[in-house]
Amino acid sequence: MRLHQFGQRRILLRGFAASLAAVLSLTAAQAFAQSAGTASNSSVFDLLVGTYTGSGKSEGIYVYRFDAGTGATTRLASAQAVNPSYLVVSKDRQHVYAVNELPGDNGPATQRGGISAFRFDPQSGQLTFVNRVSSDGNDPAYLAISPDGRYLLSANYSVASNPGGSFAVFPLDGERVGPSVLTVHHDGSGPVKGRQDNSHVHSTVFSPDGRYLFAQDLGADKLYSYRYTPDGSRGLFGPTESRYTLVKPGSGPRHLIFDQAGKHAYLTTEMNASVTMYDYDDGKLTLKQTLPMTTPGFKGKIGGGAIHLSPDGHFLYATNRGDANEIVRYAVNASDGHLKLLGRTSTLGKTPREFAIDPTGHWLIVGNQDSDSVYFFRRNVDTGELASDPKRLEIGSPVDFKFVSPS
């Protein structure tokens, strides 16, 4: 692991200590930025959709008004952006941040990705571009806002071995996102040649109490853990004593989520398409269960992707790409967090990446990146089952989805 300085900015960031002395202790229910949302009494939401723009079928970010009572969607606005494949919304709903996922598989390794900031009006759905900064890495694929709202973190996947995977930390100053003040590069590799020759940081997720950061490294088969101390007393982000949690060699960890109680964590692994459940306590993850996404004897390409819990926490869903192209559904045991496979639902297209469950819990929305389609599956909140007659919306290369209350 290497900590990089930029210019005269010091990694410990002691100059920020006075203004950052108060750290908010948040529960998992408050950790809204990466969650699908808690149950809501309102049935109308803004739905933000991030896309890939390289094919020319999409111009960037789209905003729809979504009625969870009827499933009706109305387009409100769009904003031009290059490959805004992952979005995050500020807690006050006034700001949207997007990655600019560059350079991609065939781009020059010297090109860096970007982070774009937008002003957002939830009532009208309008997005106004504010500024863009370098992601200080290649192929940014995930964003997280620190629990105190002061920093934005980017997971730089990096297809290229040089510079390799990293995560970068950006101060949030009013409407603008500032240049990075810290980047952390991981050293390491895995057994799968061509996919794990170097580090690939795929997500950065804060613990429910806001004290720790977990960086999922697909290339190194590790979940790196960092202590978050914004007062500068121990560095802004410093490795924990354990430093990382190992996962099965060749599995490729991708996305991590926590339950609302902050007692359990769930991980998707991309390369062997599995879901792993951990007990969580004070920065430590303890492996308890691993379940495959695929059916026994399945032959074909696989690719574990996104993972989310239902708003009530009773069900867990994950996407499996490759030749499977399905959403896998599990029941969550309330006493110990263990999972039980319930079933699989075709996404009716190719390459489902991210998905979202609306805050009422009645709809699951998934995008098929390579089929230019989004499907709205009505969801049974009692059984977790997805209806067989979803509504369809055509969008070029849809990837990510975020719900926001307009009022």
Automatic annotation (TrEMBL):
Signal sequence extent: 1-33
Protein origin, superkingdom: Bacteria
UniProt xrefs under Gene3D superfamilies: YVTN repeat-like/Quinoprotein amine dehydrogenase (2.130.10.10)
Cellular component, GO annotation: cytosol
GO biological process: glucose metabolic process
InterPro entries: Cycloisomerase_2, Haem_d1_sf, Lactonase_7-beta_prop, WD40/YVTN_repeat-like_dom_sf
Keywords: Carbohydrate metabolism, Glucose metabolism, Signal
An example Gene Ontology molecular-function term: 6-phosphogluconolactonase activity
Family: Belongs to the cycloisomerase 2 family.
Protein's name in the database: 3-carboxymuconate cyclase
Taxonomic path: Bacteria, Pseudomonadati, Pseudomonadota, Betaproteobacteria, Burkholderiales
